[in-house]
């Protein structure tokens, strides 16, 4: 199967599919952290029509789409997070309040356009990772977008909290592979499981928060790769 992993620099999902014999590639504006020659550095939209059997979008820009950041659409912050380009952060800091609001609403539409391009890509099987959407984003997204499947790393043997939503087209929902028992709130173990959310501010925090856990990647590669192969064999 030809598989394209979008918005990934770590290579975790790409390697999981490749380990199962798939022709797996990743694409992102940034180069691959593992230096792989099966990574495309560029705009994913330039490669959506390259004949893929399965498309996954692991960490699309979601700052404006997610419900956790909706408050900034009415009262903007004075700075942008490190995920934005340096020139955008510098320009944003010089803007007036109204200019910042205009930029954030433009940025919301920019995220919607990218998400929509992936959802409508000419690929028979699509999975897009995203957190819970805010109502402004949801109203602008395709009407046929289903409710996401929300999964946790600890469903797949990874002792961490990080709710992840997958919007699926032509693919089955994931099933638990190694469900762990979460520790009680207030314990040291619970703090360790919350490491993703407790990551200290800094230039690399976005990488920590966006990285795919290997247990999740393996579950995706097993479930979706097998499903795709079964469909191809059935329909010839």
Question: What's the arrangement of secondary structure elements?
Answer:
Blueprint: E1 2-6, H1 12-18, E2 23-28, E3 39-41, E4 54-57, H2 86-94, H3 97-119, E5 126-130, H4 135-140, E6 149-151, E7 164-169, H5 188-193, H6 205-210, H7 214-235
Parallel strand pairs: 1-2, 1-4, 2-3, 4-5
Antiparallel strand pairs: 5-7, 6-7
Structure description:
This protein has 236 residues and is of the alpha/beta class. It is 33% helix and 14% strand. The protein has helices at 12-18, 86-94, 97-119, 135-140, 188-193, 205-210, 214-235; strands spanning 2-6, 23-28, 39-41, 54-57, 126-130, 149-151, 164-169. A 7-stranded mixed β-sheet has the order 3-2-1-4-5-7-6, with helices on both faces. The longest helix has 23 residues, at 97-119. The radius of gyration is 18 Å and the shape is globular. The mean pLDDT is 89.
Descriptive tags:
236 residues, alpha/beta, seven-stranded mixed sheet, globular
The percent range for strand residues is: 5-15%
Distance between the termini: 13 Å
Largest sheet: 7 strands, mixed
* Shape verdict: globular
Computed Rg: 18 Å
The tally of strands reads 7
Can you count the helices?
7
- Give the strand order of the largest sheet, numbering strands 1, 2, ... along the chain: 3-2-1-4-5-7-6
| Chain-averaged pLDDT | 89
- Low-confidence segments, given as residue ranges, are none
Structural class: alpha/beta
Question: What is the percent of helical residues?
Answer: 25-40%
Order of helices and strands: EHEEEHHEHEEHHH
């Amino acid at each position: 199967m030809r598989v394209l992993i979008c918005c990934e620099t770590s290579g975790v999902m790409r390697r999981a599919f490749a380990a199962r014999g798939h022709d797996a590639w990743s694409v992102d504006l940034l180069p691959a952290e593992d230096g792989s020659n099966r990574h495309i550095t560029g705009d994913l939209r330039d490669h959506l029509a390259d004949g893929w059997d399965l498309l996954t979008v692991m960490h699309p820009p979601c700052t404006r789409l997610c419900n956790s950041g909706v408050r900034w659409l009415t009262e903007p912050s004075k700075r942008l997070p490190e995920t934005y380009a340096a020139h955008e952060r510098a320009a944003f800091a010089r803007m007036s309040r109204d200019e910042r609001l205009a930029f954030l609403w433009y940025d919301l539409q920019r995220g919607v356009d990218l998400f929509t391009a992936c959802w409508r890509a000419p690929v028979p099987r699509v999975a897009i990772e995203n957190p819970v959407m805010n109502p402004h984003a949801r109203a602008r997204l395709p009407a046929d977008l289903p409710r996401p499947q929300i999964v946790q790393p600890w469903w797949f043997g990874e002792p961490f909290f990080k709710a992840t939503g997958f919007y699926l087209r032509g693919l089955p929902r994931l099933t638990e592979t190694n469900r762990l028992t979460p520790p009680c709130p207030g314990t040291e173990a619970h703090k360790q499981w919350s490491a993703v959310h407790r990551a200290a501010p800094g230039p690399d925090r976005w990488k920590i928060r966006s990285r795919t856990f290997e247990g999740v990647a393996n579950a995706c590669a097993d479930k979706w790769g097998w499903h795709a192969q079964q469909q191809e064999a059935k329909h010839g």
